[in-house]
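Hello forum,

I keep getting stuck at the same step: I have a sequence, I want structure tokens, and every attempt I make locally crashes halfway through. Rather than fight my setup again tonight, could one of you with a working pipeline run this one for me? It's a single chain of 254 residues.
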Amino acid sequence: MVQAVDATNFVTASEASYQAFKTATLSKTLNVNVLIMGESGVGKKCLASFILPDAPIVDASNFDKLLLSLEKSSKIIISNIDNSPNIERLIEAIKDKSIHVIATSKQSFSNEFIDDLFSVKLDIPPLSQRDEDVGELVDLFEEEAIGLFGGKQRLDLKNFVPDLSCNSHSLKRQVMVNYLLQDIQDNELMQIIENYLHDKLGSNSDYRSYLYLYEAPLIKAGLHRFKSQLQLADKLGLNRNTLRKKISDNKKYL
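Reply #2:
Ran it on my machine without issues. Output:
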């Protein structure tokens, strides 16, 4: 049975991530250069740091800093190697100094220099293709939220739809925000809105322009809870035509 690996914060509940971790574990015992490819937030740096735990991490777009790091290190993690302004010169410097390299790339790519340097390539799928990993990550981020913000209350996941638009980055933000908001008080919510509006106000139509901040979530929550416009209109003390107009006015937010 595939188990979740939390020692490295790279979960392996899905077959794809499990196989990636197996390859990383094997690479850890060998002196081979590894290229880890995949979208932002899929766990590339996590796996790279697992393979070379004590190696510095340098972004390839900062070419001068990277070359300086190559002078000082026998092993290195290069992030976003696909952004290197001079991939040929970079590969030559690595080979000249026989440096052990783990690199990451946001896209799958291949050329003669890359293929010659990296004997192992890993392509990590996005979280949208790793459903089993999502639940594990939610639990991991929830534990982090509890440790960071205190409290013991767990998230209500009944209506939770994971935001995987930026993989683990968007999912973690979503979990943290949901954890903070689940027991938010009226005064805290009003303070958030006040802070949001403070520097945005200044035109003659601000009241109308920002009314959606109140109306849209009220309508959306009401429709979700009462399931019909007729019931919601009754609960809000509005006639049905007025509610329909407000729904139309706020349709982009609903």
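Confidence is low (pLDDT under 50) at residues 1-7. If your local run keeps crashing, start a new thread with the error log.
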